[in-house]
């Protein structure tokens, strides 16, 4: 798991470095801005871990930058500052084992339903394939740096990474406006900088609106 996340970070840094070499001053201004809402939960047909419940309501601002075209795909960088409103509860008390310090106190603390918050900046690389004059198929891989304000049995309070993979459709509703509908897989962990680091996985749905400048 640690090697997997290290590879993701290295690929992300390489991509940012490659892009930075091509940036000109006029490209620092996004060609499009937008907002996106995402709802995701651990309780789904892929994950549905019986040890805990976890869900997120995420609100993102978006700035879009054109990177070019590759084999018929339009490539974009999407910069996304965001707030995530999280709900968490430990369901299996025995997940916190007796060899942990203050394990009884932790079981009581983590088994209470709680609201948590995560603050992040996320960088996504999107590839769009035109299906019709107004409709595009879009896939996005992204990595972000974040801070979570509450500890749990799965993740320490403090610095974390967020990773997302999204697939959806972008539809041009007017000369200047676009509507996006999609689904995403998301992961939160801290790359073992802190303990614990079991992290969270979600499957979600998202809707976005953007405006061409």
Quick tags:
213 residues, mainly beta, 8-stranded antiparallel barrel, 2 helices, 8 strands, 56% strand
Describe the protein's topology.
Blueprint: H1 2-22, E1 32-41, E2 52-70, E3 73-90, H2 103-111, E4 114-130, E5 135-148, E6 158-172, E7 177-189, E8 200-212
Shape: elongated
Structural class: mainly beta
Oligomer: single chain
Helix count, per DSSP?
Answer: 2
Distance between the termini: 41 Å
Encode the helix/strand succession as letters: HEEEHEEEEE
Describe the structure.
With 213 residues, the chain is mainly beta. The radius of gyration is 19 Å and the shape is elongated. 14% of the residues lie in helices and 56% in strands. Strand 6 and strand 7 form a beta hairpin. The longest helix is centred in the N-terminal third of the chain and has 21 residues, at 2-22. The chain has helices at 2-22, 103-111, and strands spanning 32-41, 52-70, 73-90, 114-130, 135-148, 158-172, 177-189, 200-212. It has an 8-stranded antiparallel β-barrel with strand order 1-2-3-4-5-6-7-8.
């Amino acid at each position: 798991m640690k090697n997997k996340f290290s590879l993701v970070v290295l690929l992300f840094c390489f991509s940012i470095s490659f892009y930075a070499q091509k940036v000109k001053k006029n490209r620092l201004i996004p060609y499009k801005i937008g907002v996106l809402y995402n709802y995701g939960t651990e309780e789904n047909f892929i994950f549905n871990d019986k040890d805990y419940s976890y869900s997120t309501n995420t609100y993102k601002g978006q700035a879009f930058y054109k990177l070019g075209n590759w084999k018929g795909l339009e490539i974009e960088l999407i910069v996304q500052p965001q707030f995530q409103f999280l709900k968490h509860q430990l369901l299996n008390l025995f997940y916190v084992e007796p060899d942990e310090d203050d394990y009884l106190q932790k079981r009581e603390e983590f088994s209470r339903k709680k609201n948590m918050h995560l603050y992040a900046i996320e960088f996504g690389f999107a590839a769009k394939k035109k299906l019709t004059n107004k409709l595009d198929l879009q896939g996005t891989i992204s990595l972000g740096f974040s801070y979570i304000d509450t500890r749990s049995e799965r993740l320490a309070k403090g610095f974390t990474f967020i990773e997302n993979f999204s697939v959806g459709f972008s539809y041009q509703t007017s000369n200047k406006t676009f509507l996006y509908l999609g689904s995403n897989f998301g992961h939160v962990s801290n790359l073992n900088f802190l303990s614990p680091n079991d992290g969270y996985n979600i499957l979600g749905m998202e809707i976005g609106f953007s405006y061409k400048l």
